Amino acid sequence: MLTIGVLALQGAVQEHLDCLHSLPGVTGIAVKKAADLNGIDGLILPGGESTAIGKLLQEFQLTPLLIAKIRAGLPVWGTCAGMILLAKTIVDQPSCHLGLMDITVQRNAYGSQLNSFTTNALIPAVSSAPLPLVFIRAPYVAKAGPNVKVLATVADKIVAVEQGNMLATAFHPELTGNLEFHKYFVAKTGKQKITFS
Q1: Which domain holds residue 21?
Q2: I need a labelling partner for 17 at 20 to 30 A (CA). Which of 9, 61, 79, 186 fits?
């Protein structure tokens, strides 16, 4: 059984857990404190409000531990706010949160919640069929470092990237009913022996 944690301080936690529980041989757990990080095979940083999540990480003294575990190789996937948490640089902000992924992100790049939208895109690394992408007050990657693999762009904006054990998406796969990105992340842990039909 593979165990994937979902950071459960704020945001779309249950939606990710529901997706993980839909996959055979996978269990999802809510991560709220340091002890919850023990024994997990991967971690999802969900969408929500990046500033609020960043403050809660500091308040619960999780920031140094998360940085250490991800640097040591723990697979991590940040969706929307999670992408912002992982970024080394945030446009027009003097500081970052975890500062691990060599990307510069533009927060709220697509405007307010009223400007949220859904589109479809082919992301060959993840699926042979077009995937539904849901953007809600989404960021995008304004600049990606040389070691960052760009997985997807929408309207010439980078919206999905990968660097080593880190994956980040500007959109919300957990809101689509499509499990391809969750399958991709589970496979990325490198520990699972599950074959998805």
Answers
A1: 2-188
A2: 61
